Every structure is written in C-alpha cells, then in structure tokens.
Amino acid sequence: MSGQRIELKYLDKLKDFFIEHSLEDFQVIYDNEKYFKDFLDAQTFKFTNSGTSALFLIMKRLKRYGCQTIWGPAFTHVSWINCAEWLEMDYDFVDVNPSTLSLDPYELQAKIDKGECPDVVIMVDIGGYVGEDTLLVKKICERYQIELIEDAAHAFGQSYNGVRAGMYGDFSFYSFSNPKLLTCGEGGAIVSSKHDLDDIMEEQIYQGGWYKYDKQRRTQGLNFIMSNMNTQLLRWQLEDLEEIQKEWKSKYNVYLQKTPDLFHFNSDNEHYAPSFFARRLNVIPQMVKDNKMPSLMHARYRNMGGSEYKISETLENQLVYWKL
Q1: What contacts 144, CB < 8 A, 6 or more positions away?
Q2: What pLDDT, on a 0 to 100 scale, did the predictor assign at position 272?
C-alpha cells in the first residue's frame, strides 16, 4: 500500500474534539505527551512537527554540550546528514550489516580501533530493525562514553528483549509521517529513557512563547510545535495499537507470500510489521515486473558514503523498498 490514510472513525471523533477544544488548548498536547510517556515508560517525551525536527533539536543540544563529531550508517536516510550540515558538525560513515540494513557494530568497533572516536553515533532502525546489533552498538557507545541517538522513525511498536524501540538511545526520536504505523500526516517526537528533559526540550520546541502565558521565554529559535489536533489523532491510534498492528501484519503477510525473500526482523510483539521493508532485487516477482506492486526504489534511502563502503554500495543496487 503506497500510502496511509486516517481512518474515518478518528475523523468522526474530531468533530466532538473541535466542539470541546480550541486549537489553542495546549493542555491537550501535555496530556497526550504524558500518555505516550507513560506507555513507553520514558523519562522524556515531547511532540515535534516532524521526526527530522526532533533529530535536529537532539543534535543541537548535544553540540551545545561539546559534541562535534557524529558517525552514522553509510546506507541511510539523509536526515541525520542534513542536520549535521545545518549545525556545522563533522560527520563520517560506518558500513552496515547486510542482514539488518542497519549500522554494523563490528565495523563501528574496527573504525574506533584505528584511533578515531566520535562524540555521537546514530543507529538508524531501518525497516523497523531492533535486535542484537542495536544492543552491541549501545554497549560500544557506553564503553567509549559516546552519545547514542536512536533513529526509531520506522520502529514505533517494535520491541526486542522487552525493550521498546526508542528506548535504546541516550536520545531517540520517532516519526509520525505517512506511512508510519501511527500517523497524523506529519509529526515526530523526542524521547529518552535516560534523561528527564521535558522542560528543557519544551523550551526548544515551543519558541512562540504564547502557548504558556505564565512562563517567560528567554531563548530565541524556531517553532517546532505539533498541533493539539494531531497529538489527539496519535493518542487515539495508540489506544488501538494492537488492532493497528494486526491489520498491518496481515498486509505484510500478503507481501511475504508473494515475495518470500523479504527482510524481516524478530520482535517481542507477534503482530509487529514494519512501516516499510526491503527485498533483494535479484529475484523480482512477476507482479513487480508487471507494475502491479508499488515500490520506492533508491529514493531517500541509499548509500551516502561512497564506494569506500562496500556493503552499502552493494545494497543500493540490490534492494527494492515496499511501503505498507
């Protein structure tokens, strides 16, 4: 399915929502942030207007406290590289594991063993992957006192060994854009299991200053707020999470039957399905050749590091991406 729609039952609920609340009712945002925070058992949870905005604010905070160098997967989404350039941070790449499509912890360790060490590592949960490599990257970062950012944009609802995606990083973020498991069209969130930074991140997100009349704003910046309507749409979906996961898993199984060589990862939730997934290009089912199955090929996910990163270069030429 090449897109995500808001179900009619949620749109019907919005009629009552607009009767009860104005769009300036920010208490809705705070209540829904607490609901997500309690669900995740997180220390920090703050909505933003996009996943990339959340990542930008995380990296901005880390730079403010002395972090200048960030390493991430060579095969990746371009957002973390854009943020590094906007913030004038130095960045470099680590090759990926061909079995997970995410940063390879052994390649990370080998790069560190050469005498280099970053201030920050970003682990992208590409295709919803969370697993042993995630744990190994976390351990390496702890050993060398490296800040770990987990890009859990495609992994909300995923968990591994009892730990939810987004709870591995010192800082993490989600995306709620199309075609994510939970979506409000466009949106994101900053999350941390380690740091209680709700007030600090609130200062960075809500720069307009008018949302809380009793609090004086002392900093300058941009406005990364998410509307209260969008946070409410997400809360209703979170309340129906198991139902949504079952529906997505049934769609995923249709793809899996037609294309048995799909990448798929272990999860503690039997109904978990990624918001997009990949398959190797060398066995193309006839329905793809006939243009009956939509694909997203070599778009924003690609080898950003160049020919030095052999696995990433190979994957760029071997993978096709499907959106549920």
Answers
A1: 112, 117
A2: 82
Share of the chain above pLDDT 90, in %: 57
CA 106 to chain centre: 23
Each residue's pLDDT tens digit, 238-280: 999 999 989 888 888 887 787 777 777 778 888 887 766 777 6
Among the CATH numbers 3.40.50.1820, 3.40.50.12780, 3.40.640.10, 3.40.50.720, which is that of 8-239? Answer: 3.40.640.10
Strand spans (E) along the chain: 44-48, 69-73, 75-77, 90-94, 120-124, 147-151, 159-160, 163-164, 171-175, 188-192, 276-280, 301-303, 319-323
DSSP string, 127-169: GG--SHHHHHHHHHHHHTT-EEEEE-TT-TT-EETTEETTSSS
Is pLDDT larger for residue 92 or for residue 181?
92
What are the structural domain ranges in the chain?
A: 8-239, 241-323
In order of 62, 145, 293, the CA distances from 65 in angstroms are 5, 14, 47
Q: What is the pLDDT of residue 297?
A: 46
